[in-house]
User: Fold Amino acid/amide ABC transporter ATP-binding protein 1, HAAT family from Anaerovirgula multivorans.
Amino acid sequence: MALLDVKGLTKTFGGLVAVNNIDFQMEDKQIVSVIGPNGAGKTTFFNVISGYYPDHVGTITFGGHNLKDLNPEKVAAYRMARTFQNIRLFPDMLTVENILVGMHLHLSSNLFDIVLNTKRLKREEKEAYERAMELLNYVGLEGKDNELAKNLPYGEQRLLEIARALAIKPKLLLLDEPAAGLNPKETEAMKNFIIKIRDELGHSILLIEHDMKLVMGLSDKITVINYGVKIAEGTPDEIKNNPEVIKAYLGDDTTTDAVA
Assistant:
């Protein structure tokens, strides 16, 4: 059984068909990239499968669970986490507090525990804080637990958002343009970090990305979307020499190796 199995996915906005009858599958512990020109429907695809855009046509099965019309919180409860193209942190909260927000799905304390300040509440709070500190260290932000999120450099804010997503303990991590705004050195570090997440933590990773060097350097499989339609799927070598992909990017199907 595929970890994520999407069949006939279609999402419209009025008369605009943003995603059109897409079939998509990925296996456990894969790194899969979704690429395509600007406006191709990639982020819409992410938003549908992660619960941000309901009322779609088609089926989404994740870890054996039907995600049809579930909201983002319920999708996250099945351990699908995501980041966003435009960073969505809580800027006036501490870095460690941002990560703690991502842990609420795994906490069992209730109003009774809060009112009476029970041992269970204290234990969970202590364990959550320790785990948040571990994640800060894991993404390279050791010693910055008392920094406001808004005071971190841009690249570190990207890492903090990933740390918050990892707090959900995801089976599948969705990364929407993780290298956007990064310089070449930071992009190379991001590539290695994404591979590290898969290899060390065992998470599957699905990403949207425009940096073709990064995509070709880390992907097990690449899916290409154009005008809401899947036009190609395969290994990096298959994709970079695919005439339909080259045509989508350059408008010329005579050029080879265009997306390398």
Remarks:
- The two ends are 31 Å apart (CA to CA).
- The chain has two domains: 1-79+170-260, 87-164.
- The first strand starts at residue 4 and ends at 13.
- The CA atoms of residues 120 and 129 lie 14 Å apart.
